[in-house]
Amino acid sequence: MGITYDLTLTAPLVYLFFIRKKKVPLITVVPIFVLGVLLATLLLPAHQQYHLNLIKTYLLSAVELSFLSIISYHVYKTAKIFKDTANENYDFYIILKESAIKALGYPKIAKIFVSEIAMVYYALFSWRKVPTVGSSFTSFKENGITALLGIILFIMLVETFIVHLLVIKWNGTVAWVLSLGSLYAVFQVIGHLKALRSRFSELKDNQLLIKYGLFGDMKVDLQKVMRIELSLNNIKDEHRKVEKLALLKQVESHNVVIYFTEQQTVEKAYGIIKECDTVLLHIDNEKEFVETINKALQQN
Question: Considering the entire predicted model, what is its pTM?
C-alpha cells in the first residue's frame, strides 16, 4: 500500500510542490502520475495490486478525462477566436497545434501529440469538402497523388493480410504486432491524403503559407522570398539546401521552385524540423500561383 500511494500520489504532489513557483504547466504532472502507475505495476506482485487497481479504475480514468477536457477546451477556445475574427475557413491542424502548445507548454511534446490527433481527425472525421478561398491553391488534383496513395494503400492492406496469415502460424503475438503496425501506417497515409484535400497553400497578410497535408508546413514572410519559378527539374546547385515537399520524394513530381534569401524551416509531422533555402512543391494551378506571388513581391 505504501509503495502504491508513494508512487502514484506522493510523487506527483511533491512534483507539484517544486514547480508551484515556476513557469511549468501544471498539466505536466500527468506524465509523472502515469509513470508512477507503470512503476507500481512493474514492481508489485500481482496479489499486492489491489489498491493499484483501484487507482487504475477510478483515478487514472479521471486524470485521462481531465487531460482530454483541457485539450478540448483550448481547441474550442482557439476555434471560437478564429471564427469570431475571420470570415474564412480556418485550419483545424493549426488550431489544434496552437491549442496543444498552450495546454502542454512544451512545443515539442505538444506537436507529437497533435500529429496523432490530427491523423485520427482527418482519417475518420474530415469528410466536408473544403472550398478554396481567396489566394489559396490545392496540391492534389493534377499530380496523381490520390491514385498513387490509393494503390499503395491497397498493396499495404493485402500485404498485411497475407503476412498476418503466414506469421500467425509461427507466433500469434508477433503477427498481431506486425499487423497493427501496418494498419497504423495505413491510417497515417489516409490521414495525410485527406489533409491534402482539406489544407491549401495560400498568400495571406504578406505571408506565404505552404501546406502539404500532415507532412510539411512552411510560414514565410514575402520579404524572404528571392524568386519563384515554374520548373520540373531538380536543383543541382551545391550551394543551396533544397527540400522537396513530398511523402514519396522519388515518385511525386513538383512544378514550382521557390528560392529564399535565407534559410527557412519546414515543419514535418511530429514536430520534425528541416532547414532549407529552396523548396520544391506541386501546385495544381501553378501559373496563377507564380503570378500571384510575383505580383505580391512587386507590390512589396
Answer: 0.73
